[in-house]
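Researcher: Please translate sequence to structure tokens.
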Amino acid sequence: MIASLQPLPRISLTLLLLLWAALLFGGFLFGPSDTSQRMPQWARLASSAMLVIAGWSWFAATRNSEANNFVLWLAIGMSFGFLGDLFMAGALPGGRNVLGGMATFGLGHVAYIIGIWRYANQMGLNAGTTRWGSLIVWWIIGALAWYFVVYRGQQPTTLHQAALPYALLLASTAGMATGLALQQSQFIWLTIGAALFLTSDLILAAQLFNGTTFFLIGDVIWLTYGPGQMMIVYSAATAVYGRFLSILF
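Model: Translation complete:
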């Protein structure tokens, strides 16, 4: 197993994790009352920014280890994810841009897939049947979810059509993570993170495409998306220590 981090990076990564949690869950608990979303936008975006900083901090802390390339792709993926958050929040010039958000989230998942693929090959965790079997199962899940949540009963638009490859891309991350976790069980948290990201996006798609709404839907989207991204970024700890969030113990 790869050597442990030095005390200072370990402390800083723990503090970033705690700050992320305070922003996300504190924003939900103490945000203003609202029927669709309590969490303020600034708290949501700031929590996402903490994960970007954490991702690059992991990269800096593991620069002399075997995990460094894997962690690099996680940091790149999270950076694109944060850019997607800015697009979806309308925080960039031009206002809210759903296609821009989908494109940047998609690039983030391409980075995650590259990182998992290369790490699995590097560590010899690349059994073909396990990898491709997991991908096929998740592609089926992604396609079915797209059909029932986005497409069925709708007049197809460019956005509806773009949502299919996007859903399959997110499912690919979950599939790659599952293939890795089936060979090294400690990576189950990476799989859960990817699955939570896909779940969050399906709820958002139902809201955007079908007008679905329920109490605190905006918070449910972020309380699945945020922890999902955190589990992906902090799966770096699994590559370093063999245990998820072992920096806390």
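Researcher: Any highlights?
Model: Residues 7-248 form one domain.
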